[in-house]
């Protein structure tokens, strides 16, 4: 009786876990590597061939026309006629060759006619015949982590044969260093003593606008300092909408009108005073 886990694996296949002990460009070379492991009495139950980078390849075999469609129908009709003829011979042993020939002719004619109708009436027909294939770019031989070293010895791939670990493997790939490296701390030397005091040059007279020193080392006088520039980025202004622009224009016009009326009123008052 099979266990539930084996039935689940059969229904939902998963990618095998382990380390890559060899990577090959063709399936034949990967198969030869597995054959080499088998000759060395290696437990093949832990070996898998995994194809990666799958590509769909459509190989064109020739041009498609009504003649090729009829030829394909003829071959299919011959096979169908032979099958029906054998079935008739089994059911009616007394039937002779005269009975089989009409059956084969009817099967061939029906198959040819069906192929021609399918070719002519197919809206997505192609002008060529082809064969679809699913191919892999390279093939990896995957072995369980506990047997990866032995497999590399048999195949002669060395310690760097497996550069990757497949999903589910708890053991890192060979050649990968997982130990933590100590962090080097920078060692500072002893502080250097201060050097001899540098000689001071002659004192420069204070210019205008500079603070004058007083007794006790205090400095009096106007001290000017420029404000530090703000390091905060300027907030970009939000563009005004059409309604806001119209409101601003209307306010400018009203302000200009009020200023003009004030000037006119002032001119009228000065003219009245002069006339009196």
UniProtKB/TrEMBL annotation:
Domain of life: Bacteria
Membrane spanning stretches: 69-91, 97-117
Low complexity bias spans: 198-217, 267-276
Keyword Chloroplast recorded: no
Biased composition (Basic and acidic residues): 247-266
Keyword Ribosomal protein found: no
UniProt keyword list: Membrane, Transmembrane, Transmembrane helix
Region Disordered, residue ranges: 162-276
Domain General stress protein 17M-like: 19-87
The name this protein goes by in its record: General stress protein 17M-like domain-containing protein
């Amino acid at each position: 009786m099979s266990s539930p886990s084996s039935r689940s694996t059969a229904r939902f296949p998963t990618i095998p876990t382990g380390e890559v002990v060899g990577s090959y460009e063709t399936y034949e070379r990967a198969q030869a590597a597995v054959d080499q492991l088998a000759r060395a009495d290696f437990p093949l139950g832990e070996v898998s061939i995994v194809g990666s980078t799958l590509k769909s390849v459509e190989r064109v075999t020739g041009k498609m026309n009504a003649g090729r469609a009829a030829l394909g129908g003829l071959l299919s009709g011959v096979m169908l006629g032979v099958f029906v003829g054998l079935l008739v011979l089994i059911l009616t042993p007394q039937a002779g060759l005269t009975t089989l020939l009409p059956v084969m002719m009817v099967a061939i004619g029906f198959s040819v006619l069906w192929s021609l109708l399918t070719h002519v009436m197919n809206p997505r027909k192609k002008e060529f015949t082809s064969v679809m294939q699913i191919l892999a770019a390279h093939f990896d031989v995957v072995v369980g982590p506990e047997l990866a070293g032995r497999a590399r010895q048999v195949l002669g791939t060395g310690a760097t044969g497996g550069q990757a670990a497949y999903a589910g493997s708890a053991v890192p790939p060979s050649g990968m260093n997982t130990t933590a490296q100590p962090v080097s701390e920078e060692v500072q030397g002893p502080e250097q003593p201060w050097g001899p005091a540098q000689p001071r040059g002659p004192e420069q007279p204070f210019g205008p606008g500079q603070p004058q020193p007083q007794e006790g080392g205090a400095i009096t006088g106007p001290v000017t300092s420029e404000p530090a520039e703000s390091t905060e980025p300027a907030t970009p202004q939000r563009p005004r909408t059409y309604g806001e622009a119209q409101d601003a224009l209307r306010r400018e016009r009203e302000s200009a009108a009020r200023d003009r009326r004030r000037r006119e009123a002032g001119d009228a008052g000065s003219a009245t005073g002069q006339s009196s």
